[in-house]
Design goal:
The chain is an alpha+beta fold and 172 residues long. Helices cover 31% and strands 9% of the residues. It has seven helices and four strands; from the N terminus they run H-E-H-E-E-H-H-H-E-H-H.
Length: 172
């Protein structure tokens, strides 16, 4: 099954199918049930754009990583969606926050930049971030852009708990 042609937005039906496909295998959570306990995996690390690009699913023996909202997830278990030649491989090896928010595989949307997103797109982003990525895939790190200034110096004003769309207690 091929993804949409580059430069095209996914129609709403395809977006719904993407959400359902990504959510496949998630345990059903009923009212009052606790969320999935955190798994202890490899240590969390900081990724530069160049480092993250190494995990784009092109090599069989490498894990597949993608970032959403500056959080790097190991999506290797979803290889049929994210691996080489898979429909959503374009999202891997980078921070694809805008693409996830817009349900888009347009190369211009495969970026961390959320400037100009609508309230509906930001709500969709939060929903997919929480109910798909955080619920299903292990967090292996964060993008350097999330914590560092453009010149590489530490962002002294960065406080994870103050960042929009970020709940630190759920991420560790």
């Amino acid at each position: 099954m091929a993804g949409p042609a580059p430069g095209r937005r996914l129609p709403w039906l395809a977006a719904l199918a993407l959400g359902l496909a990504l959510a496949a295998g998630l345990p059903a959570a009923g009212a009052g049930q606790a969320p999935r306990p955190a798994e202890h995996g490899p240590p969390v690390r900081l990724f530069t754009e160049e480092e993250l690009a190494r995990y784009g699913g092109e090599e069989e023996d490498q894990p597949i990583y993608m970032a959403v909202k500056g959080v790097v997830f190991d999506v290797t278990s979803g290889k049929e969606f994210y691996g080489r030649g898979a429909p959503y491989n374009a999202l891997t090896g980078k921070d694809s926050t805008r693409g996830v928010a817009r349900m888009s595989l347009d190369p211009a949307d495969l970026t961390h930049d959320t400037t100009g997103l609508t309230a509906e797109e930001l709500e969709s982003l939060d929903d997919v971030f929480t109910k798909v990525y955080k619920a299903k895939y292990p967090i292996v790190g964060y993008t350097a852009r999330r914590i560092l200034n453009e010149d590489g110096s530490p962002n002294l004003n960065f406080k994870p708990e103050d960042q929009p769309h970020f709940d630190i207690k759920d991420e560790f």
